[in-house]
Amino acid sequence: MRHFTSVKDIIDPNAAVQEALEIKKNPYGYQHLGKNKTMILLFFNSSLRTRLSTQKAALNLGMNPIVLDVNQGAWKLETERGVIMDGNKTEHLLEAIPVIGSYCDIIGVRSFARFESREDDYQEKILSQFIQYSGVPVVSMEAATRHPLQAFADQITIEEYKKVKRPKVVLSWAPHPLALPQAVPNSFSEWMQAAGYDVVITQPEGYELAPEFAGTATIEYDQDKAFEGADFIYAKNWASYSHYGEILSKDRAWTVDSRKMALTNNAYFMHCLPVRRNMIVTDEVIESPMSLVIPEAANRVFSAQCVLKRILESL
Ligand code: AN0
Ligand code: CP
Fold it and tell me: Domain range holding 260?
């Protein structure tokens, strides 16, 4: 594997999950692969888990990680070609990218949807420039439309906890005060369908994911009905795709609470974190023994380590 930006970069995701579970049992078994190799992790947006788990994964593989927060200490970057740079941006992405590439063997990039233009976001204008101009493998640490390291960790977690071969996995929209990207639900839907699970998406009208990401998931606008018989509830907020970037609802009737969890098949609760308590999910549900949010975050080390291992093996 050269670049990792989507489930499509993994030929057999179920085999990759098994490989990640093997790595979890023997995390320091591949240190020779990363000797004298450097990974630069570039953040255009905030992060707790991705920043720590990806560094930990690189360290477990014997690599040297370097972290750069572009907006804190680096020059402000212009991303549009052809702009007369007489404003507050000091450097162009077209120089910055190959310079960064010259200092490392792998680049990780976090660059969220900007919600300025749906076309620009869905064309992955920033991430694709890294792929085109860096000269090294690029790993998405959440780009405009996908967060594949998260969805990979989610599948690892479901495989560890599932009680039936083909669980019913429900992706539920939940309210949030700010407009959030569709990257997490897009990737989750894509990975869960690739895994062959029974995938249901529940959301208010107007929150439908892009057709390429909704795929063949069952869409159920009645959240209670969607929860019936579920084995896993995956809550997440996202802003509208059709009314791009808009908040159409903050209805707390969609908050995941104990009454709704009682409709399920004793489902586990999942969320990628960071989560706003009592908006997305009640204290009671997130603190319950069925909450997987901590093991799910812990598995981010092993999704990242599996991806980096495969990239290192193909260098
Ligand atoms: C981001 C999002 O929803 O895409 C990152 C989640 C991993 N969340 C927030 O900005 C709160
Ligand atoms: N889940 C996740 O990616 O968390 P961070 O935004 O803290 O990295």
Answer: 150-297
Read off the CATH number of the domain in which 176 is found. Answer: 3.40.50.1370
pLDDT, tens digit, for every residue of 242-265?
999 999 999 999 999 999 999 999
Tens-place pLDDT, residues 47-100:
999 999 999 999 999 999 999 999 998 999 999 999 999 999 999 999 999 999
Pocket of ligand 2 (CB under 6 A): 47-50, 142, 150, 272-274
181 and 107 in a common domain: no
Task: Tell whether 1 is covered by a domain.
Answer: no
Going 129 to 130 to 135 to 140, the CA torsion angle's sign is negative
Pocket test for ligand 2, best of 41, 48, 112, 141 (most atoms within 8 A of CB): 48
Ligand 2 closest atom vs CA 53: 8
Query: Which of 168-206 are b and which e, b meaning 16 or more Cβ less than 10 Å from the residue's Cβ?
Result: bbbbbbbbbeeebbbbbbbbbbbbbbbbebbbbbbbbee
**Ligand 1 atom closest to the CA of 113, numbered from 1:** 4
Atom of ligand 1 nearest to the CA of 238: 3
Name the closest-CA residue to atom 1, ligand 1: 180
82 and 128 housed in the same domain:
yes
Query: Does residue 167 have a cis peptide bond before it, meaning omega lies within 30 degrees of 0?
Result: no
Decide if 304 contacts 39 (C-beta within 8 A). Answer: no
The CA 51 to ligand 2 mean position distance, Å, reads 8
Rounded CA gap, 143 and 125, in Å?
10
